[in-house]
Write a structure and sequence with these properties.
The chain has about 100 residues and is mostly beta strands. The chain is built from no helices and nine strands.
């Protein structure tokens, strides 16, 4: 996904884990990502990729993994996380994440 001058990258892992990174196009500046500090989060090399199916349209995308599903809306930008069809988390639920 790209919004003017930003790239967003989503990675899906076993256990319903999702990682989101938002950076400037061309990698000039990191905007948002999980810390790579060992005591802060599970490190990338300890996670097992688990993307079964991805469907992308003009309005959004749906990523399906073993037990999870991630529904992404592009406008407004929002990500909903489902585990066994139950909504467990919404990123940007109140539309307060703005991209200048």
């Amino acid at each position: 996904m790209q919004a003017a001058h930003l790239n967003a990258e989503l990675r899906v892992y076993e256990g319903g884990i999702m990682r989101l990174r938002i950076d400037e196009v061309g990698g000039q500046e990191q905007r948002f990502r999980v810390s790579s500090e060992p005591d802060f989060a599970v490190l990338e090399d300890q996670l097992i990729p688990d993307l079964v199916k991805a469907t992308i349209s003009e309005k959004g995308a749906e990523l399906i993994s073993g037990t999870g599903k991630f529904v992404i809306s592009f406008n407004p930008f929002r990500i909903q996380s489902f585990v066994e069809e139950k909504l467990v988390m919404t990123l940007n639920e109140n539309d307060t994440l703005y991209f200048e």
